[in-house]
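Progress note, project year one: complex with NAP.
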Amino acid sequence: MGELTIRLPQAFACPVKSYLVHILVRLGSAPTLHRRCPFSNIEIMNDSTIVVAGATGNLGRRIARALLERGASVKALVRHGTARDRLERLQELGVTIASIDLSSASQMTTACSCASCVVSALQGLRDVIVETQTVLLYAAIKADVPRFIPSDYSIDFTKFPPGENRNLDLRRDFHKRLDKTSISATTIFNGAFADMLTGQMPLILFKRKRVLYWGDADQRMDFTTVDNTAAFTASAALDPSTPRFLRIAGDQLSARELTAVVSEVTGKQFRLFRAGGLGMLGTFIKVARTVAPGEKELYPAWQGMQYVRNMFDGRAKLEPLDNDRYPSIRWTTARDVLSAH
Ligand SMILES: NC(=O)c1ccc[n+]([C@@H]2O[C@H](COP(=O)([O-])OP(=O)(O)OC[C@H]3O[C@@H](n4cnc5c(N)ncnc54)[C@H](OP(=O)(O)O)[C@@H]3O)[C@@H](O)[C@H]2O)c1
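Model obtained:
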């Protein structure tokens, strides 16, 4: 097929381009699009530019990589002072780095220009999740970016009220601002990162051959690997018609089912261990928060316990799932994660 070249007037280039590409790709006639960015004067051909904030982090770097694998151009917004090795790893992937002051609205706006989506994988407390993300959001809007993916990647916090999980309340506060804007936003809910089953998450006690649970051993929970979450986020970032919420889970299983899987994978007999009821867990959270508040830490012990309570009480369960939305993604199960461990 001959090459189809479209030159767009500069004023219309950014918002119109991704929509045109979408239509033409569907018609089997992907164009080569040439346009000039009003701020950065970059010529972009035949792909989308996705801006990623937090691309130096664990999830963000994998999102950047998955975007590049899908043919997008990726621009990472990084703060001054980010560790050099983190930047080098991104540059080796082929990511363009914009080292800016993330509290500067004008610098953020310039950096967001010509993107078809801004993806946030920032991590932090109120100053980052509410304040820095707000600067990023308003910059995206000012730069006419049509779509925004906030740094949520969690259990479904729309299903339980504020006050139960500090870190998720921060995301909820950011949503209050996000939902007042006209940008098309998509939150991705993925449950817990399945990778944490091998250590970080206090569920499988490998040395004691126990699977710890609170409340109901048959309550299913959602687990998705960081890589699967990144792949899905990248596909969503390049998809011009995503809804406000997308829900994914590489696996859904209860403590009882997890016990069977870990026993089979290790060849050792694991047993269930009931730590207590959800009421007792609530009391432990209050006591831990009083004696070791660590309010300025991202994950003090009581915060981890808040996540565990939210998962075991079932309200944050993800349904219906959108796993089939991008058929090329192969979902990694808890068994896969434990087998690889
Ligand atoms: N569902 C789950 O089980 C689960 C588990 C973990 C994380 N998550 C979520 O995944 C998302 C990303 O987390 P992650 O673990 O990938 O985080 P991470 O590895 O700690 O990376 C955090 C990113 O945010 C940037 N950042 C941190 N503080 C900043 C600040 N004050 N100003 C500007 N940038 C700042 C870091 O930049 P520098 O490189 O400059 O420090 C880095 O790029 C978060 O929404 C997190 O809640 C979900």
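Residues 18 and 116 are 6 Å apart (CA to CA).
The pocket of NAP is lined by residues 54, 56-60, 79, 82, 86, 102, 121-124, 128, 132, 151, 153-154, 190, 192-193 (CB under 6 Å).
No further modelling is planned for this target in the current period.
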